[in-house]
Here is the input.
Amino acid sequence: MELKKYNLFFLYQETFALTKRLFIQLKRRPSTLLAGILQPIIWLFLFGALFSKAPEGFLPGVDSYGNFLGAGLIVFTAFSGALNSGLPLMFDREFGFLNRLLVAPLTSRLSIVLSAFFYITILSFVQSIVIMIVSYVLGYGWPNLYGLGIVFTTLILLVLFVTSISLCLAFILPGHIELIALIFVINLPLLFASTALAPISFMPNWLGWLASLNPLTFAIEPIRTAYTQTMDLELVALHAPYGDLTCKTCISILFYLTVISLIIIRPLLNRKLT
Amino acid sequence: MSYIQVKEISKSYSDIQALKGLSMEIPAGTLFGILGPNGAGKSTLIKILATLIEPDSGEISINNINLIKNSRQIRELIGYVAQDVALDKILTGRELLDFQSDLYHINKNKKIERIETLINQLEMNDWIDRKCGTYSGGMKRRIDLAAGLLHLPKVLILDEPTVGLDIESRNIIWQLLKDLRNDGMTVLLSSHYLDEIDKLADRLIIIDHGRVIAKGTPAQLKNKLGGDRITLKVREFSNQAESEKICEILSSIDGISQIIINKAQGYSINFVADKQKDLLPKLKVELAFSNFEIFSLAQSQPSLDDVYLQATGKTLLDAEISMAGKRDLKKESKQSMR
Here is the structure.
């Protein structure tokens, strides 16, 4: 019992130290944080303006395009941050810093993974809150307390799902060039093949299918619904070609995807970290 | 009873066999040297002992704890200083040591005390609060060494700790290693610098192509060679046939032993001359009889390089040069990545 208590404290000590290191890096090199905030805000202004004169009722269930876009940009920001989460680990691998962690008697090397999750989750939350505030100032609304709960739950699931994939890639790929190239290839196509910028009803059939199978869509739609003020988990959030999905179903799918990805990457992380 | 026991370990990287059934025993409180040219398998051996990679076969124990089965327990016992110093450029030296202390679960009060002690011991006061990215090679090595010593390990494992260092940093590190050994710590040091191992190590092994080719104390190994080491040349650049002929002549002279041809040094002849006998006049006569003249003759006390030369037929420097062209450092770096 005493040993378990110590192990838990040691796990906390390790995870805290590893997370603190990532935040010190962020503090001294804040460009990642700033770029992660600025990019979606610029998109919000530009895309919001692009369709500002669209006819009323142009988009189902929202007053303006900016209102529609907000959820997509929140998810895209969290997604991009999580997708990049493997980069620090990749640099640690390449420069040998990972060896410093691996020769230490860590209670569990899970702390290396946990620290990446904590870091990206907190970073995504900060970036999302800034985007939400800017959206609010621009008149695109603010979710109620229940809606906020949905927004952050969805973001945590998305970050866990994408971060686990990114960490996995950081161990599989030979170097940071390959990882950056892959991130570059995945990032924007996944955004465009989701409901971040347009509803499925605007898309050709094939793209509609792609978007309705895209994990980003399962995160975007509950957050979009959270902005309607009539938040109900049983509300239909997504009119997919294969049928209507409620908020609860979307979040459940995201949850299962996260669990499956964690189960899949576990053997790889075990092999690489033991 | 040895503190560290390594039995018949082998390790291969795809097509390269880095270690071939290597065995060694290290008593507690020893400063133990692993000498060999680059590419001999030193770093692989060190990484296995530091639990970074597993051997393909063989057994290793430290303090009777099986290294492969109980690697976490072993990590509590060891401190590791890598060949390539990997520091986080963004952190200051003090932050790095603080970070490392948490990874070793050192409590807050002890952590502050240990960090201060090591800062003073390794003379890092002037620059410890600067970012690691601004450090020189010597500073990086010192901070890395401090990080390896934070948790007061029973065994300190160092992979080529003084490569490329200035004299001041090297002397500080040498003195610290001696002090640690005197305090009872077992220090394991790999190097391809002969003088480093000669001056520091209580015992050593010399490895070549993944095998132990000699072991003992520096004095034992040098004494085994017998008398003074002579290097003879009959012309600046000789050839195999000529050298073999000279070897024949030398082997007929009483008091000359351990004759080898050093191809890399222009087919010079290296041998041990018995101190008791005045061999030079006899040597001159015998060579002249076969129409050879002495071009150069150098006499020296036996060194560890001679031990290596005796075992492999080439000097450590020549072995380094010959390996330099064969090694694919980029490939090795990728192989060592987790």
The domain at 4-222 of chain B is CATH 3.40.50.300 (Rossmann fold). The first helix of chain B runs from residue 42 to 49.
